[in-house]
Design a protein that fits this description.
The complex is a heterodimer of chains A (495) and B (117).
Chain A (H helix, E strand, L loop, with lengths): L6 H17 L9 H21 L4 E4 L10 E4 L1 H18 L9 H22 L3 H20 L3 H33 L4 H7 L5 H18 L8 H8 L2 H26 L4 H27 L4 H21 L3 H32 L15 H15 L5 H16 L1 H27 L12 H19 L5 H12 L1 H8 L6
Antiparallel strand pairs in A: 1-2
Chain B lengths: L2 H23 L3 H22 L22 H32 L13
Classes of the chains: A mainly alpha (495), B mainly alpha (117).
Chain lengths: 495, 117
């Protein structure tokens, strides 16, 4: 039997993108199937990696160079869990390409989409900090172009803003990498853990700060979130969904990985940084949810809600409390699965009514129950209502935080209530209220399949969250226990 | 640390600060991109400088040269990657700038107000 290795995920996406470029001039109509096929393959690969991750996690040394010299891809519980979520979200988004009769522009769009997924998957799997930078750039450069596909000036403007914020952030991260390498002479995460104690205080502080600034920008944390609302407004709906559900989660993962694993030995500094990140997370949650309250534009509201959610997820990730951490991971899944259909639905508003202003499209979905059901379900997931997965995420997050930081738990709870207020108002406007608009919206079957697939996933996982629990617990063990990660990454466990 | 090395580090800091300043304050898209490039070049210079050894040579075993004089080859590999990435970012940025000009008829970011700056 062929062994399943993490680089298959990267190779298949890269291969798919190359094949599409090569065959597009001859059989352009067939290219639209490539992303879905490749991403379905990736879903299966990452599922297999995840199933193995708790007993015998797969680690791969690229080119046969053993760490600390070579690059390794580590499919531990955390990495393969996120890789599975990324592949799944990307696969379902890629189904929307099937309705294209692809033009040259759309073929390029699909290629860029695959490259961006490649960057995000690599980001969560790699065990090398410079390789992480390369994947980060791959992910974001493709995303800038994808965002700039948005209509008219809005798209170009959002893409340009994202590019400025993103590349300054990436340069900051690169400075952090170089500071670490110059002092310690290694780039391998597992190898760096034991060397970290040799780092001088000033260098350690500087590299942590550059890292935090860089990735706080990438993961839209207040006050470095400036690009995010514009990207969510200006980008094509599927790209906005992708940025919110995938790119931000992958960036949040990097923050967690560095402070749990790489900096594990620098205890004093690390706990100060956890406090700073916690504060950033709380501020982001408060800021995102309150600003979302005053938005009239459907997508801008969802955008600020994404910022708020990123803050909540970060608080859970850096809390070092098992329940809150697992809650945050569940929120990554629930938020990603719910935001994709919500963002994609803005397309129907734009195409049918020419505006996203919720005051002007009252009752837009009232006569369209096929669209109203996933809209309501997605909103309820984000609010944390049972039987959807978001319920468990919010419950565990707030319960876990309440054990150690009751005040922060209270703030997150209040932010959730504000969230409920504007989501319910949105639902009232679009689904319940009577408006002049009673138009029957034309919907593609493919789009309905996407919406209902996410809905089904949210309900199945919401009723049976225990399906995920061994891997979530594994992810917490992997992060809270650096020696476990080192064993995995050095190939001592499994093969 | 030799004087020359210190000079390089000062240069790195200056380039990063100048680049950031330009990105944050200038209002013309192309000037902002020049700032971004200066910032990126400063970071690349930092990568080169950390591998620098006074009087060092290429890390190839040659009779008569002690391995202590070898420069670290890894930063050079890293900087090549970083330069390529910088070039890609700039190419992308300039193509977006072309689109901005087509859409707005100007390169002044103050006049691009479809979204809030």
């Amino acid at each position: 039997m062929v062994t399943i290795v993490p680089s298959l995920i990267i190779a298949s996406l890269l291969g798919g993108a190359f094949v599409m470029t090569a065959v597009a001039p001859f059989i352009r109509r067939m290219t639209k199937y490539v992303p879905s096929i490749v991403l379905l393959f990736n879903v299966l690969i990452s599922l297999r990696l995840l199933l193995k991750s708790t007993n015998e996690p797969v680690v791969e040394f690229i080119g046969g160079w053993e760490p600390p010299y070579g690059i390794n891809l580590v499919a531990g519980p955390m990495g393969s869990f996120l890789a599975l979520i990324i592949s799944l979200i990307a696969f379902l988004i890629s189904l929307s390409f099937l309705k294209y009769e692809p033009t040259v522009e759309e073929v390029k769009f699909m290629i860029l989409f695959m490259l961006s997924v490649l960057g995000a998957s690599g980001l969560v799997l790699t065990g090398d900090i410079f390789n992480l930078f390369v994947f980060l750039e791959l992910m974001t450069i493709s995303a800038y172009a994808l965002v700039a596909y948005g209509r008219g000036g809005e798209g170009a403007e959002a893409g340009f803003k994202y590019l400025l914020a993103g590349s300054v952030a990436a340069n900051f991260y690169l400075i952090s990498v170089i500071l670490i390498y110059a002092s310690l002479g290694s780039l391998n995460m597992a190898d760096l853990v034991s060397r970290m104690t040799m780092l001088k205080y000033g260098v350690a502080l500087a590299s942590m700060l550059f890292l935090v600034i860089g990735f706080a920008t990438e993961s839209e944390l207040f006050p470095l979130h400036g690009w995010a609302p514009d990207v969510y407004t200006g980008a094509p709906p599927s790209v906005a969904a992708f940025v919110s559900g995938v790119l931000v989660s992958a960036s949040l993962y990097v923050l967690a990985r560095f402070f749990y694993t790489v900096f594990a030995e620098l205890n004093a500094l690390r706990s100060e940084m956890f406090a700073i990140l916690m504060l950033l997370g709380v501020l982001t949650a408060i800021f995102g949810e309150t600003v979302a309250l005053v938005q009239r534009d459907y997508r801008r509201m969802l955008g600020y809600s994404s910022i708020g959610a990123a803050g909540m997820i970060l608080v859970g990730l850096v809390s070092e409390i098992p329940y809150a951490f697992i809650g945050a991971l569940l929120l990554i899944v629930a938020h990603g699965f719910a935001k994709v259909p919500l963002f994609m639905m803005s397309k129907h508003l734009e195409e049918n009514y020419g505006t996203r202003d919720m005051e002007k499209v009252k009752g837009a979905f009232k006569a369209n129950s096929k669209l109203a059901i996933p809209l309501v379900a997605g909103s309820l997931t984000i609010l944390g209502m049972p039987p959807f997965l978001g319920f468990w995420g919010k419950l565990l997050l707030i319960y876990g935080l309440a054990l150690k930081y009751p005040i922060i738990a209270l703030i997150i709870l209040l932010a959730s209530i504000v969230e409920a207020a504007y989501y319910l108002r949105m639902l009232h406007r679009l689904v319940i209220q009577d408006g002049e608009l009673k138009k029957q919206i034309k919907i593609d079957t493919v789009e309905l399949v996407i919406y209902y697939a996410f809905l089904a996933l949210l309900i199945i996982l919401g009723i049976l969250p225990m399906l995920l629990s061994p891997y979530l617990a594994g992810a917490f063990i992997e992060l809270s226990n650096p020696s476990f990660y080192i064993k995995v990454a050095m190939g001592v466990m499994g093969g | 640390m030799s004087d020359l090395g210190t000079l390089y580090y000062i240069n790195v800091v200056a380039m990063v600060v100048i680049g950031l300043y330009i990105v944050l304050t200038k209002r013309n898209v192309l000037k902002i991109l020049i700032g971004l490039d200066i910032l990126g070049t400063g970071v690349n210079l930092l990568i080169v400088v950390i591998g620098y050894i006074e009087g060092g040579t290429a890390p190839i075993y040659t009779a008569g040269i002690s391995p202590a004089k070898f420069v670290d080859p890894l930063p050079q590999a890293l900087v090549l990657t970083a330069i390529v990435i910088d070039a890609a970012v700039l190419a992308m940025a300039i193509s977006i700038a072309v689109r901005l000009y087509r859409e707005f008829g100007t390169l002044d970011v103050r006049k691009m107000r479809l979204l809030k700056w």
